[in-house]
UniProtKB/TrEMBL annotation:
PANTHER family in alphabetical order: AB HYDROLASE-1 DOMAIN-CONTAINING PROTEIN-RELATED (PTHR37017), ESTERASE_LIPASE_THIOESTERASE DOMAIN-CONTAINING PROTEIN (PTHR37017:SF11)
Keyword Glycosyltransferase on entry: no
Top-level lineage group: Bacteria
Signal sequence region: 1-25
InterPro entries the record matches: AB_hydrolase_1, AB_hydrolase_fold, Sec-Metab_Biosynth_Hydrolase
Gene Ontology molecular-function annotations: catalytic activity
This protein's name: Pimeloyl-ACP methyl ester carboxylesterase
Amino acid sequence: MNKNFRLFGIAAAASALLTAGGVLAIGSGAEANRDRAAKPTVVLVHGAFADSSGWSEVTRRLRDDGYPVVAAANPLRGVSSDAASVRAFLESIDGPIVLVGHSYGGSVISTAATGDPDVKALVFVAAFSPEQGESAFDLSSKFPGSTLGETLTTVGLPDGNVDLYVDQKRFPDQFAADVPKKDAALMAVAQRPVTAAALNEGAGEPAWHTIPSYQLIAEADKNIPARVQHFMADRAHAVTESVKGASHAVFVSRPGPTAAFIERAARETA
């Protein structure tokens, strides 16, 4: 065997090894992509006096763990119309969904998900999970402890409805007491109003009757008292986790536990 032939053989063997390695690498990447694609899409729905930006740190953690995440804009105009908007958003998503709602967003997701076979779990984050006909106002006043009403300011609308805001000076203590003050002040400026009609509108047929539900309870919540959250969780036979000292903005102040709880719902209902 001459030298040139031996060199050709070595080069060919090396090329084969590199090619095999490339195939293995491609296979590993494909497998990772399949794992990511197999995970449900997490849909995040904000509530009153907030917007989707509040989910930023939760979103980052979920995406780092391979979950597709999208945030639905909640119009905050009325339970039935808001639920119809979110339902249309859900119908644009292929595959299984874990639907997450904060505060008033809980009323919206429960109505929106009814009868949707793609929604595998409902996660209520310091949120309302109403029975049919119950309003956010009904539930928040069911037990003492909510101080939200005394912090609200109003703006009259041309159609005769009223928009509600939390007074900016009182927002940090009322809504986000465990969020750094400078961040809570920015949240107060960026808050989106909810109509008074929305908070007084009864919810539709509740999806938590048929879809597994998970309730993350903020134990220091001044908007929806923890006792109300426990009542709703018990009634729905929800998987429950409490966050001691957490304000109504638990998804902002405690993004790690919030994301972990959402992932638990995803795993257990896969």
